[in-house]
Amino acid sequence: MASLKVPASVPPPYEDAEQLHKAFEGDPLHDESILSFRYFFLLRLFVDSSDVLFDADRWGTNEGLIISILAHRNAAQRNLIRKVYAEAYGQDLLKDLDKELSSDFERAVLLWTLDPAERDAYLANEATKRFSSSNWVLMEIACSRSSHDLFKVRQAYHARYKKSLEEDVAYHTTGDFRKLLVPLVSAFRYEGEEVNTILAKSEAKILHEKISAKAYSDEEIIRILTTRSKAQVNATLNHYNNAFGNAINKNLKEEADNDFLKLLRATIKCLTYPEKYFEKLLRLSIKKLGTDERALTRVVTTRAEVDMERIKEEYHRRNSVTLDRDIAGDTSGDYERMLLALIGHGDA
Amino acid sequence: MASLKVPASVPPPYEDAEQLHKAFEGDPLHDESILSFRYFFLLRLFVDSSDVLFDADRWGTNEGLIISILAHRNAAQRNLIRKVYAEAYGQDLLKDLDKELSSDFERAVLLWTLDPAERDAYLANEATKRFSSSNWVLMEIACSRSSHDLFKVRQAYHARYKKSLEEDVAYHTTGDFRKLLVPLVSAFRYEGEEVNTILAKSEAKILHEKISAKAYSDEEIIRILTTRSKAQVNATLNHYNNAFGNAINKNLKEEADNDFLKLLRATIKCLTYPEKYFEKLLRLSIKKLGTDERALTRVVTTRAEVDMERIKEEYHRRNSVTLDRDIAGDTSGDYERMLLALIGHGDA
């Protein structure tokens, strides 16, 4: 269940677009030419800091307006606003947001405003260019989206980057990571609930044999996890647990510092218990020394419209404190307000 | 260019459906109950073989009617006929065709009548159940269809088999064949014409190094061939030829009896010169001792609506005889008539 709160009566998109445009215009830095920038500092020397022109509230008001609109519109509504905005002002709303906002707040607003498939394509592309920890982002997109949504990401990737997603993933990874990630992002899993029990038993046995032999990146493990439907993977892992007395992820914990093993465990969790996977990601990103804003922003913007209510429930159960409270304790300002709005805190 | 000939004025689908239904009804074996079968043989004892009821021409007429309709309708028109037929007679046209027809002619009519994506899903599924030579069918579907058409095949596979295509391919293959075929059938290649020349040069070098080391199934070779756009693969192979003095397929001919190497060469040909790939397939299927009807039927039914004119041109150039003539020389009866109609012989 989504945490996004959309008001019962939404203004027409041209009105939203107009409000957003006003939010930018009220800002003396809107015209970002060096001249006006200098003018701004000159002015600053002469006016009192309490002057309404540079009043902190007024700055806040602009950003508050942006949050009050965008954080309470669903994907179809945001797309319409972007379209109408471009027609009315001849500019891309995203580019204007990019000019007006900064740091964590900016990233949250931009990611959120993007269409989900475009956003995933953007995150995936960014991940192919970063270090190995970003393999998790690729796995997460591949495993937690529906088959059709993952395909839409691949289409958006073509449109935006003039390349295929799997092409970039294959090019930027090597070894075991490539062996796992390329079929994950290329998958178009069957989504029915049908389960083949005989197959589940025989493949549970294969998994157990390979794991016992510490052949963690064996092609049979990869095949089972990357091609079977989620229902079938789940049935196989249930048989694994029943037949061998341990959940598979327990048996995959032997080597503490093996990054591939960590990714394999995360893959299994993301395929079978996405809400637990996301809960843990949020927990680690908030609790670690210095919040991991990238992960926090990613989870909130990508799940707010999908299953954030389930994730919040899981978070509360696991941490004995609500996600709202932990986010409020760890973030501040407009960034905090944006995240809280997206996870459904307060009224639309 | 397609070889399919559709008449300038096509009858409405209900008329086609009615004609097809009549074609079946004119046939005394239509009601396939044992009773009528016996009745047929009893009748046979009493009537002169020249009697119109069992006149060879009359049988031919039924099949001729089927050919005259179905072999001259495009995919959208055939789909409409199937829909209208099912509504009017409460039966699946394909099931009735299956009852009425037999052997090579039956297979050609059934394959042709199927929607292209359904047909490919059917052929691919059949291929996963057969011996290794059918790996070619999987490769052919993966490499010669457009990215969107291949995705439609994967959707049709879900709908028909309640599984994913890559799941069956991975399950039914092993070793190097699996390493190549799974990414091939899972690919969603970028289809733009943009080429990265620097990349083409560096990847041509990688290919040459691996091939020189006889590491034919190296993961880098697989990555390049399975993830790059066709335009990019082509540019890379052109650089290979320029830089190393040989077309890549020449360098892949070292081991005559290596089935994987044969498949790799066919993959390269199918990606870069599909019309030559299909020409050779037709040539081998016709020229070999005993026609290979499976391959012949597959190529004709899958390419008639796509690029058969190009393939015929290539065939003529390579064999100094037209494809029409070779097909007429090697096949007979309704099967021959069906194939010739599909490759554009005679009027619509």
TrEMBL record, chains A, B:
This is Annexin. The keyword DNA-binding does not apply. InterPro entries: Annexin_repeat, Annexin_repeat_CS. GO terms for cellular component: cytoplasm; plasma membrane. One of its GO terms (biological process) is response to salt stress. PROSITE patterns: ANNEXIN_1, ANNEXIN_2. It comes from the Eukaryota. Keywords: Annexin, Calcium, Calcium/phospholipid-binding, Metal-binding, Repeat. The keyword Repeat applies.
